[in-house]
Specification:
This protein is α/β, with parallel strands linked by helices and 426 residues long. It is 32% helix and 21% strand. The strands form five sheets. A ten-stranded mixed beta sheet has the order 9-7-5-2-10-1-11-15-19-20, sandwiched between helices. Strands 14, 16, 17 and 18 form a four-stranded mixed beta sheet that branches. The longest helix has 21 residues. The two termini are 23 Å apart.
Amino acid sequence: MPATVVVGTQWGDEGKGKLTDLVAKEMQMVVRYQGGHNAGHTLVVDGESFALQLVPSGVLYPHITPVIGNGVVVDPFVLLAEIDTLEAKGVDCSRLKVSGNAHLILPYHQELDMLTERYLGKNKLGTTKRGIGPTYADKAMRVGIRAQDVLDEKIFRQKLDAVLEDKNRLLAKVYNRLPFDADELANRIFTEVVPRLSPYIADTVGLVHEALDADQHVLFEGAQATFLDLDQGTYPFVTSSNPVAGGACPGAGIGPLDIQRIIGIAKAYITRVGAGPFPTELFDAHGDTLVDRGHEFGTNTGRRRRPGWFDAVMMRHAVRLNSLSELAITKLDILDSFETLKVCVGYDVDGRRHDRLPYHQSDLHVAKPIYVELPGWQTNLTEVREKKDLPAEAVAYLQFLQDQVGAPIGFVGVGPGRDQYVHFNA
């Protein structure tokens, strides 16, 4: 049962798509286990960019079955549009499977997401307003509508009528908004969605276990990242699901003993989108350089990401939470122009040093980074393909990160292209 999990270890945007794409060469199935289309990643193949939101990155390989697991929330209109875009670029999506237990994001979820965020005002969470949170909330409240429901119009209408009675009352009484028309929405679903989505809907838990039982290589990819996890992240500035490696179990229908390898992805620096604590955040020219050189703008939203130096305190915690077997460091080349680099190795909280992530939010919000400075290499790394060709300063930087966080580095990204990487501990 050779199963591998790829997980982001910071606040997202670490380059999971590229690593997943590289590892997928050895796989027969790639399974997305949580999140929705609020998490996008971009792959560059032969100079062409592919911006994926819901479809697993393994779709770019003709030998792989891409699977959207039951833990994912799916906007059917977005999914179908993404399939159209991929197929227009010559990518065959016919192998895609969507769990019948995956919950659907419907227009009223997006309306409520937008309204809730607006009414929070200065206390807003920085949601993408894609309807992710309200859909997971409906799932927890047991009033959600799943992909399998569209296969039975009677069941779908019963569930839609029941949920819209409550949602429309909320929209009218609290937000003074017009109600959703159940007939109109159902008609859209059964004319625009069902004929095209139905062939993809499947028993994905059964498919995954058939693959594992046949000793096929299965890759489980999460969206977002460890510190956006609903339970382990910087709450409430988190997503509405569990991106940590353990989330692959409920999100795809596997057991812990099915997993053999867990790869954590981290940038050589760190970024964050939206509100929330960020001890190593940079507000100076160094931060602007990271944003400019790293093209640090959201794949989906276009929002500027908040930049900062690498935080080894967070990474130690991520290694523990995910039981990482190895790390992949991406975007090392973005640091090429720096004369000096900084790595946060501890926090100062009101005069007390913390080498572990503080559990209390008040401490994290006032934590000041304790830095170690390392020399930069000021050399273009984008053409490097072997460890022996890395500058000594780059090797020393990576070795320092590895020693600080307690996990070996297996892969180092030196550019956006599919071939721009180095095996560090081959």
